[in-house]
Design a protein that fits this description.
This protein is mainly α. About 50% of the residues lie in helices and about 10% in strands. The chain has a single domain (about 5-60), classed as lambda repressor-like DNA-binding domains (434 Repressor (Amino-terminal Domain)). This is Transcriptional regulator.
């Protein structure tokens, strides 16, 4: 899939764990884990909004478009 979720990178930068973010955002730990591990097929804008609000970041800090999945880059 050409969209890569870099949630784990942003969480590490903000020093927040999966359980804490799950509680703050109001999403189940299982669903947040699916998103974090790049297994999600979709994300609601309301969920993305809540995650960005808690991590104080932009959607582009979490979502990345790559034409070739082997060409993933990070800041």
């Amino acid at each position: 899939m050409p969209i890569v979720v870099n949630l784990d990178v942003m969480m590490a930068r903000r020093k927040i764990g999966l359980t804490e973010l799950s509680q703050r955002v109001g999403i189940t730990l299982a669903n947040l884990s699916i998103l974090k591990n790049n297994k999600a097929r979709a994300i609601r804008f309301s969920t993305l909004d809540a995650i960005c609000r808690e991590l104080k970041c932009q959607p582009g800090d979490i979502l990345q478009y790559v034409e070739d999945p082997n060409d993933i880059w990070e800041d």
